[in-house]
Task: inverse folding
DNA sequence: AAAACAATTGATCAAGTGACCAATAATGAG
DNA sequence: CTCATTATTGGTCACTTGATCAATTGTTTT
């Protein structure tokens, strides 16, 4: 077999180890889904004893909730930072929609669907989902309000646009990325946003 | 404690027992979700030994897939039977949309979301989901085509309308039935269908 | 250098899962 | 009424899960 690799156990500071576990948990969520976030799976990926995960996260449900919150929040920050960097309001919306329609976002869409479903039975995850959704709503509402679009009520427009995007998430699961349903969903998001804000998006 | 209830074991014919198990599995799916469909949970609900379930369904994944297929197919048949009973094409669509927006459909919406998510890791369930979605697509497409609406391509219109309805399913999980997001989603379905088919729906 | 500290291990527990199968008893046939 | 058929039981196996805790070992302090 392979050479016996000596079990060097690295000792990290609590903050570092905690961050490492959280990060690995996030990877598992994005790559394998919430159902794959088990003590042993995570410990093996970290090259660490299962008990160590318990030491930093006494209950794994809290870890799942926090890891999801981390991913969701990071995505919102990234997307809106990129959007607000654009010059005109219309360009900002165009950038946001383009990023949301990017096939690379598929993993995040899958995670959202997973979280919606799993939050039925997991209170902490459910709380994190609600917080993340509110964050989305607030950010998008602010972006619309600042833009001065022909939208009577920015909050309502934000809710409607988010509903379109959520619906897009489903296509990420049930269809392959190149399936006809996917293109239909894309078109509906673009047309819906244009209609909602009274603008024309010039997406590649 | 309570009086010792004698364990009368009723002996059903194979067909009857199989149907009983399938029906009970459907109840579990609608009431507690796919994750709650376990041998023991199901056996207890039936007042039967766990092994009996295995006897009729050697692998429980097949049972889950078949139970989902049963529920989904039954819903399609019921909804379209009610719709086609209406006199005019517009009334048919109105009836279908009204039924889909009925709060009582919440359990079915939750099951669909559950199935979409779970089908990621369960091949047989995934197959059943695809069949059910195709059935929906075919039925709706036929209804639109027969109606002679101002829709250039009935198949595309059906896909778009189903995407709207799928998006509505998410609201069933994340919001309470009386939350604002729910009303927004309802409005989007109605307006989307009206725009897609060039009609005006008169829903209560 | 020695001691105190604490991050980490490894083993173990109880609970829950799907699956399997010989034994049992209800039902129907002769 | 008797017997054969078979639907059904109940016990068990192997596995996975989250969780707990004394023991260990690396790091830091004295």
Result:
């Amino acid at each position: 077999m392979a050479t016996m690799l000596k079990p060097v156990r690295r000792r990290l500071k609590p903050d570092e180890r905690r961050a490492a576990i959280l990060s690995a948990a996030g990877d598992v969520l994005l790559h394998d889904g919430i159902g794959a976030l088990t003590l042993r799976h995570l410990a093996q990926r970290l090259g660490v004893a299962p008990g160590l995960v318990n030491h930093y996260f006494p209950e794994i449900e809290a870890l799942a909730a926090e890891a999801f919150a981390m991913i969701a929040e990071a995505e919102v920050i990234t997307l809106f930072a990129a959007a607000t960097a654009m010059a005109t309001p219309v360009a900002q919306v165009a950038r946001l929609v383009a990023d949301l329609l990017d096939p690379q976002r598929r993993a995040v869409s899958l995670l959202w669907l997973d979280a919606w479903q799993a939050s039925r039975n997991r209170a902490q995850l459910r709380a994190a989902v609600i917080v993340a959704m509110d964050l989305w709503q607030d950010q998008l509402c602010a972006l619309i309000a600042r833009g001065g679009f022909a939208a009577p009520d920015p909050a309502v427009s934000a809710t409607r646009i988010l509903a379109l995007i959520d619906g897009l998430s489903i296509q990420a699961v049930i269809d392959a990325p190149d399936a006809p349903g996917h293109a239909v969903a894309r078109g509906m998001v673009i047309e819906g946003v244009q209609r909602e804000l009274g603008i024309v998006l010039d997406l590649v």
Q: What stands out?
A: The CA atoms of residues 89 and 147 of chain B lie 5 Å apart.
